């Protein structure tokens, strides 16, 4: 294997102190300079990225689904949490776009409940066998309980009207007591099967996006359902963790109103079950999405829209003193809204196969840390609503992590995150962008060339990206990364890269002529290209006074990880 070279300068502390940090326009030859101080700890490096989700629960135990879940579990040193829809939907378990079913609840001829946990258990078993854990989404409505059971199932496909999917599964129950008993039996069954300690480590939540058509009831009916659900969960397992409300982005007025109405009820409303004040909640959930579009024939992302959703939710939670320190899980946190809306039907989603998705992911996750700290809230995780779609055309342009079992560039960003542990440390933010500028303006002027860094007892990692909202050709950026605080001993440096030539199965597929049915040998090569690759050969270095400068050429929409080990 042939590697490119990375220029490494060993520097003393006096030189480092004179190392100025500035960001220049892309036309200037002066390198962008990023300053990392491993000795200045900001906060623990929470694995907020170790959360994934998808609409189609039955993909979980299919061939490519199991393969991808294995890979996701292996990239993380902590358990990965997985959130899926439709765990209580009536049906035969057939997998389809934006659909899934488990047949967990039916009724006999006399209207008595019949519980069947076979498919639910099969889904959770697949997670647990890999050391993963569920965010157990309680929903949607079984047909026998739906207040409007017909029509029940949709047969949506890309290009169809999105509003056609919201049928009988989206309605309130005709009997809240029967619903509560279903929830109670599910939690009791889970404790019996998996053990109390295991189930205590899960997160239980109610529904998905109840402020839009996923919930065909009123806000008050959702609140009533939450009270019945939370009471049932806690009766079955008092130490279970229960949360909600999983609304869409709170920067939207109707979503903000729904979220505040819900949290008002949680803190001071009359409980529908107990008659007491308030309702139990252990964590808070909502969504945050960007908004790409086509501009002059190219994709233009809008990271600012997603960050404004995030920040508005943080602001709302922080306004409730009793709730401010609760964990927050962003239940879906993505560049846009519809994972199953393919590129061929939605051209603005053409970012998904290549490196724009990976650079966006790196840059946006870094800002999630900063924004939550600025609001003083407790961000636990951000779910990437992105998995895989079985039996689809190669690189069709779904928002997924892999295609036909081959990993896409974006998955390699999560492999990079998996190597960042310990504490998050200082990266000087006097570059072109900080989180406020990206939130308010997105990335429309200069490129966002910046970094995120961590340090543990025996490792350090610096992630560097070159991101821009506009996916247009641009010269590579010269970047100097100055790292201070390394031990003054031999340190191994591994430089990983995601760009057009590295860690990129999509470009490899295109270089093969974009085969619709790749051969076995081509698939082998694609699988190899989909793994995280080194840009340069591993090197042993001895920093001077604990300091070193790494020089690199960083292409637009590329991500590098400098990983130090001693």
From TrEMBL:
Residues of the signal peptide: 1-22
InterPro entries: GH, GH39_cat, Glyco_hydro_39, Glycosyl_Hydrolase_39
Residues of the Glycosyl hydrolases family 39 N-terminal catalytic domain: 33-529
Domain of life of the source: Bacteria
Keywords: Glycosidase, Hydrolase, Signal
Annotated catalytic residues: 209
A Pfam family: Glyco_hydro_39
Protein name (Swiss-Prot/TrEMBL): Xylan 1,4-beta-xylosidase
Native organism taxonomy: Bacteria, Pseudomonadati, Bacteroidota, Cytophagia, Cytophagales
């Amino acid at each position: 294997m042939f590697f490119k070279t990375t220029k490494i300068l060993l520097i003393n502390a006096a030189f480092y102190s004179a190392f100025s940090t500035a960001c220049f326009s892309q036309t200037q030859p002066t390198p962008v300079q990023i300053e990392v101080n491993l000795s200045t700890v900001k906060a623990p490096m929470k694995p907020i990225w170790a959360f994934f989700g998808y609409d189609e629960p039955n993909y979980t135990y299919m061939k490519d689904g199991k393969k991808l879940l294995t890979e996701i579990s292996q990239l993380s040193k902590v358990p990965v949490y997985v959130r899926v829809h439709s765990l209580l939907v009536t049906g035969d378990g057939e997998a389809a776009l934006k659909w899934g079913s488990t047949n967990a609840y039916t009724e006999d001829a006399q209207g008595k409940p019949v519980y069947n946990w076979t498919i639910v258990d099969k889904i959770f078993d697949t997670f647990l066998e890999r050391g993963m854990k569920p965010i157990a989404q309680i929903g949607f409505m079984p047909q026998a309980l739906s207040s409007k059971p017909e029509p029940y199932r949709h047969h949506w496909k890309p290009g169809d009207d999105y509003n056609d999917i919201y049928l009988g599964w989206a309605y309130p129950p005709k009997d809240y007591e029967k619903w509560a008993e279903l929830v109670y039996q599910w939690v009791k069954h889970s404790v019996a099967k998996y053990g109390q300690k295991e189930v205590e480590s899960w997160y239980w939540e109610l529904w998905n996006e109840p402020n839009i058509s996923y919930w065909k009831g009123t806000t008050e009916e959702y609140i009533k359902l939450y009270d019945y659900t939370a009471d049932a969960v806690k009766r079955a397992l008092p130490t279970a963790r229960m949360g909600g409300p999983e609304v869409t982005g709170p920067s939207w007025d109707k979503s903000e109103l729904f979220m505040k109405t819900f949290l008002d009820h949680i803190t001071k409303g009359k409980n529908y079950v107990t008659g007491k004040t308030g309702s139990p909640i252990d964590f808070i959930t909502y969504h945050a999405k960007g908004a790409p579009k086509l501009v002059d024939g190219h994709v233009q992302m809008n990271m600012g829209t997603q960050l404004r959703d995030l920040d508005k939710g943080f602001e709302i939670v922080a306004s409730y003193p009793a709730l401010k320190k609760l964990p927050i899980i962003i239940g879906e946190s993505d560049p846009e809204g519809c994972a199953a809306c393919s590129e061929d039907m939605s051209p603005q989603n053409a970012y998904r196969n290549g490196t724009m998705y990976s650079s966006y992911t790196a840059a946006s996750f870094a800002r999630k840390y900063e924004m939550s700290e600025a609001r003083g809230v407790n961000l636990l995780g951000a779910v990437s609503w992105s998995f895989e779609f079985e039996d689809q055309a190669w690189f069709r342009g779904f928002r997924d992590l892999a295609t036909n079992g081959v990993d896409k560039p974006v998955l390699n960003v999560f492999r990079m995150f998996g190597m960042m542990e310990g504490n998050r440390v200082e990266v000087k933010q006097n570059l072109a962008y900080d989180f406020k500028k990206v939130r308010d303006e997105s990335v429309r002027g200069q490129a966002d060339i910046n970094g995120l860094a961590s340090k543990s007892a025996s490792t350090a990692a610096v992630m560097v990206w070159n991101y821009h909202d506009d996916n247009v050709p641009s010269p590579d950026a010269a970047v100097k990364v100055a790292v201070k605080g390394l031990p003054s001993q031999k340190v191994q440096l591994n430089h990983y890269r995601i760009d057009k030539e590295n860690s990129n199965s999509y470009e490899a597929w295109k270089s093969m002529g974009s085969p619709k049915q790749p051969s076995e040998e081509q698939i082998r090569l694609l699988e190899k290209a989909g793994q995280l690759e080194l840009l340069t050969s591993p090197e042993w270095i001895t920093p001077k006074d604990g300091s070193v400068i790494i020089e690199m050429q960083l292409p637009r929409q590329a991500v590098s990880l400098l990983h130090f080990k001693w």
